[in-house]
DNA sequence: TCAATCTTGTTTCAAATGAAACAGTTTCAA
DNA sequence: TTGAAACTGTTTCATTTGAAACAAGATTGA
């Protein structure tokens, strides 16, 4: 592990707007929590993305596209991860009788059991790690991020392009 | 690009605490902004991690370890990225005369020029993307994340271990 | 019907990432 | 001074990621 303690880790330039600071902190918090998650799963025969897929799969099966949409990644990323989960016996691919293009990702009993075991512990650890924020602050954070998320998604194919607009 | 618009992208279980929601949103916001950054740099001969290294390097040189600490990643990650930046002529490695273990990552004139050109535009884009939050909300978000960051860093080699404590 | 178009998942490639092992340096205490 | 321990950067390996091309299947409209 070993996470740097340096609280002054900003780019050296003087121009540090609140927006940049907030984004830098968001990156850092994300990075630390990701590291913790990876560490938690080390002894569990799972990587972080593998655990995420397990979380989005179900006994009855979920289309791979639906999982990749929820994970905000490309289908092509999941092929290999699912392969490894199959090798470990936690999921299986099953054809969708209604649409022969889709393959449903199904939890095996082993996968469902793994999840029943892991998920509550994982949630509890996350809860503890955020305990430095009061209940009210957690709500605040959630609402701010929710608002940011919506605006980013809605302006999606607009805002990020280099339009002359503004 | 194409970013899913599904606002109901939660794991299917009923137990959705505010902490989990906040963390999920943090992941999602991070993912979207990362995608935008990647898109912005597509035409600039740079990837996101390459641009980050450029931001942390300087004309006079910065030790690779210092850059990896700021980026919260392992030294071994940077070797390859720096190699590619050298191939593109944006940085060079120079031995530190005071410590023969360290190699200083130095911006070339081309790299410095690239940065002078890109950084202001990058900051402006980020600012616009967060414009849905009021000035006050940006401050709030920054303070919440700063608080979370500090507590995560301080409890670093403690909190994430599976101590019986609590 | 049938051809253009979209969708789904895979393959391939380049890049990034984390972990472990390693060699060369430096530090520090005995 | 010397030997153990720590530090710095690279190498190697397995995994993840994004992008583009692709094949097979579904959909749509003329």
How does this structure look, described?
The structure is a homodimer of 166-residue chains. Chain A has 166 residues and is mainly alpha-helical. Chain A has a domain at 39-153: Arc Repressor Mutant, subunit A (Orthogonal Bundle), CATH 1.10.10. Chain A has 7 helices and 3 strands; from the N terminus they run H-H-E-H-H-E-E-H-H-H. Chain A has a 3-stranded antiparallel β-sheet. In chain A, a hairpin with a 2-residue loop joins strand 2 (91-96) and strand 3 (99-107). Residues 1-13 and 157-166 of chain A have low confidence and may be disordered. The interface between A and B is large, with 72 and 72 residues. The structure holds a DNA duplex (30 and 30 nucleotides).
Note the topology.
The structure is a homodimer of 166-residue chains.
Chain A: H1 18-41, H2 48-56, E1 62-63, H3 64-70, H4 75-87, E2 91-96, E3 99-107, H5 109-129, H6 135-154, H7 156-159
Antiparallel strand pairs in A: 1-3, 2-3
Helix pairs in contact in A: 2-4
Chain A binds a DNA duplex (30 and 30 nucleotides) through helix 2, helix 4 and strand 3.
């Amino acid at each position: 592990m070993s996470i740097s303690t340096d609280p002054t880790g900003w780019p050296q330039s003087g121009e540090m707007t609140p927006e940049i600071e907030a984004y830098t902190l968001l990156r850092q918090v994300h990075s630390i929590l990701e590291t913790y998650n990876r560490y938690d799963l080390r002894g569990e025969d799972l990587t972080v993305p593998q655990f995420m897929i397990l979380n989005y799969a179900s006994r009855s099966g979920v289309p791979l596209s639906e999982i990749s949409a929820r994970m905000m990644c490309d289908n092509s990323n999941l092929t290999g991860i699912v392969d490894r989960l199959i090798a470990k016996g936690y999921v299986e691919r099953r054809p969708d009788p209604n649409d022969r293009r889709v393959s449903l990702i199904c939890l095996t009993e082993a996968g469902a059991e793994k999840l029943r075991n892991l998920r509550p512990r994982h949630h509890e650890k996350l809860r503890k790690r955020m305990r430095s924020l009061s209940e009210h602050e957690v709500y605040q954070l959630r609402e701010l991020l929710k608002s940011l998320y919506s605006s980013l998604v809605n302006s999606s194919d607009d805002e990020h392009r280099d339009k002359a607009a503004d």
